[in-house]
């Protein structure tokens, strides 16, 4: 069961421990480095070998064919298709309001300056395999890229049981606008996307979640291509007062905990009685949960419940923690939004469980974890845009600027910089 | 002298080699890791030991005092102060137009959603030491942070000759709005900023250039704090046609090359005669340059001149290269801006040498290098902002969404997610 901490304990010991990045296992790094080098040297041949070895798939082409993508639609339940389309509409609507246009900062006869906004050309999306399939990952990563204007979106995901990819991922890819899908998983997928092979064109940026091998591969290819982030364990912090409903709060703590054993559920409560009731309710609801074993380990090892003096104190702890998800289940919940400084995404009020945002409401579910919300943001259209500044000076503008530029260049002992100005004005 | 390449050679061999990230030296990484661990464990004591060892400074406090900062103004030439103030005005004006406000994506009785824009709370700026001082680094890094609303801007730079920091850096810090300055250099500065000590409060993000040790330290602390980027060698690509002036073009190639021996100067020219004249002019101008030795090595080892068939072909090569700086010295230069896909910053026309942007015009000079302009952007106000999404659902909105959320949660085998919705609607 969730352990209780005092405000002081939580502040002094817990936050520092929970906002420290988790280093990669050096064996994993070594293995992945070898695979990446191999793919860089041997291309498709290496990709096929690893795909046969790890996913049991031996095929001449790892591309998901047009036919396969068409057929996938027959293998997905209609209500799932409808739900994916509705979710995609909401995600598209929310993210379309993030679009920005190139800017002009200054425009006179003598000076023109500004910022160009340009989409990335090619983006790769990694979608993990495993027992379950995660079509929401496809929507959340591909839709912002598509809206940004990315020309080619390539998705890779491992084949299941040595055969095809799960049809629901193919359908989600169609809905989100993914151009090409490959049946490749693990670090070999990251290597193929980063460096390209005979069959697979290298991309400019790779996004999407994955296991320790995928994460290590992303960290190693970063710099040669862009990456979104290296995600740590998923987290929720819930701030509640006496107006909250213990069954709702408990359900949300459990929904977080069912992800995996390292997931983190934090509760900050101003009422001792409601805190006790909520913890009882967590116990009760866990009993009926299919993923009970995972959730109970997560709650016991990683969870925390803190009785706080005031809502403000709760926000102070939460801002120090900088959680991936924050729920505010209090009276006048929207009013407290102003107190949020560090969080990935905020869910406001008694009827906004995180699950609504995970799948449906529109905001992205790819969010900063492990305290990185102090300095970084969830996935957005901005992640698929480059900003290039530009400036034009007329001869007259250069003449006005010359004395200052020359003074500063000489101060920095870069005489060639001063000369680049002088040579243009001396004739 | 600059080596000439054919279009084909440049495309096939040169670009791939010049857009590959440069791995850290493992000895440097090891040394830096030790220093960071030491600072994490021993705090100020360790910082002071390293500062004494590497910078020859033994002092009870490493803080630059108010008195020292006031006195610095007497030790900087008035024309330098004026030039810094003028440059700061331009940088402030350009970057202020990047400011964005929090967004509302949807607002009805049932749904409120959007993005909060929040400044980072504390930012650290590293300013390198060495023979020369770089006040422009202070302006370019601190001004966007200040505009973004960062509450505390901390700068560190090593003391010179075991005494004080260069007065011009202190003055630039005052002009740019830096709150606190410490006399700390190298990886120990990065460690102190990332993890905090008794005297130095930890920051949320560290920006600014530095040598191999500083770069390695930034890469190691990344994740615990944010960083701007790991800069590679500085680059310029210059596209010219027959309208260009060889002395201007040559001066700009040399200005780039004088930075250091690894700096890269690339020329793309549609005219064989003008290309030859420009290379002659490079030779001639180099003779008179104070940093001649550095520039000549840089040009010979890292430079490239390519005779191109057309301007479009030049842009195709440049977009593949994704250079840090791009100059367009052609007829109707502004018209060609539309062809730029991948570049850090663009300088347009015959009278806009890169030097104007390095110091004065307003756009930032902290820019992506080594091909990373394919997927990343120069420093801007955005780097000091976090975007937090938020969503409120009423009971009614949740009821409308429930079937879809439940379907998707069940499809992903996360029953607890479906239950978090159900529990709110069943009473």
TrEMBL record, chains A, B:
Which positions does UniProt annotate for substrate binding?
234, 256, 259, 325, 358, 412, 417
- Tell me the enzyme class: oxidoreductase
Q: Which UniProt keywords apply?
A: Amino-acid biosynthesis, Histidine biosynthesis, Metal-binding, NAD, Oxidoreductase, Zinc
In this entry, which stretches build a coiled coil? none
Show the Pfam families listed in the entry.
Histidinol_dh
Q: Which InterPro entries match?
A: Ald_DH/histidinol_DH, Histidinol_DH_monofunct, Hstdl_DH
Matching entries from CDD domains are given as: Histidinol_dh (cd06572)
GO molecular function terms noted in the UniProt entry: histidinol dehydrogenase activity
Positions of Zn(2+) binding: 256, 259, 358, 417
Q: Active-site positions, per UniProt?
A: 324 (proton acceptor), 325 (proton acceptor)
What this chain does, per the entry, is described as: Catalyzes the sequential NAD-dependent oxidations of L-histidinol to L-histidinaldehyde and then to L-histidine.
Checking NCBIfam families in the record gives:
hisD
Name it.
Answer: Histidinol dehydrogenase
Q: Say which species the protein is native to.
A: Siminovitchia thermophila
């Amino acid at each position: 069961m969730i352990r209780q901490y005092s405000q002081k304990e939580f502040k002094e010991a817990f936050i520092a421990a929970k906002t420290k990045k988790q280093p990669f296992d050096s064996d994993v790094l070594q293995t992945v480095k070898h695979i990446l080098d191999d793919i860089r040297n041997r291309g498709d041949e290496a990709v096929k070998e690893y795909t046969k070895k790890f996913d049991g798939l031996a095929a001449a082409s790892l591309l998901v064919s047009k036919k396969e993508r068409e057929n996938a639609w027959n293998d997905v339940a209609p209500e799932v298709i409808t739900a994916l389309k509705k979710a995609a509409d909401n995600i598209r609507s929310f993210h379309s309001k993030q679009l920005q246009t190139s800017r002009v900062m200054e425009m006179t006869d003598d000076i023109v300056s500004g910022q160009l906004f340009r989409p990335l050309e090619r983006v790769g999306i990694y979608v993990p395999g495993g027992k379950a399939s995660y079509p929401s990952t496809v929507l959340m990563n591909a839709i912002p890229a598509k809206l940004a204007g990315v020309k080619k979106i390539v998705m890779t995901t491992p084949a299941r049981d040595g055969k095809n990819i799960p049809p629901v991922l193919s359908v989600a890819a169609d809905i989100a606008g993914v151009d090409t899908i490959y049946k490749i998983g693990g670090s070999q997928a990251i290597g193929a996307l980063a460096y390209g092979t005979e069959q697979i064109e290298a991309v400019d940026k790779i996004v999407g979640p994955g296991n320790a091998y995928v994460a290590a591969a992303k960290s190693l290819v970063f710099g040669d291509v862009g990456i979104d982030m290296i995600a740590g364990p998923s987290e929720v912090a819930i701030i509640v007062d006496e107006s909250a409903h213990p069954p709702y709060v408990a359900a949300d703590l459990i929904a977080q905990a069912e992800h995996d054993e390292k997931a983190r559920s934090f509760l900050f409560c101003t009422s001792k009685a409601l805190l006790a009731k909520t913890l009882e309710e967590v116990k009760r609801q866990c009993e009926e949960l299919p993923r009970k074993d995972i959730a109970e380990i997560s709650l016991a090892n990683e969870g925390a419940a803190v009785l706080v003096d005031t809502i403000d104190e709760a926000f102070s702890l939460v801002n120090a923690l900088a959680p991936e998800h924050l729920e505010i289940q209090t009276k006048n919940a929207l009013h407290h939004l102003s107190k949020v400084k560090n969080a990935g995404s905020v869910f406001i009020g008694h009827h906004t469980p995180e699950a609504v945002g995970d799948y449906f409401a529109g905001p992205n579910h790819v969010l900063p974890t492990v305290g990185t919300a102090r300095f970084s943001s969830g996935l957005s259209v901005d992640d698929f845009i480059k900003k290039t500044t530009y400036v034009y000076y007329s001869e007259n503008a250069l003449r006005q600027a010359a004395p200052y530029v020359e003074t500063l260049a000489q101060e920095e002992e870069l005489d060639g910089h001063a000369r680049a100005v002088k040579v243009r004005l001396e004739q």
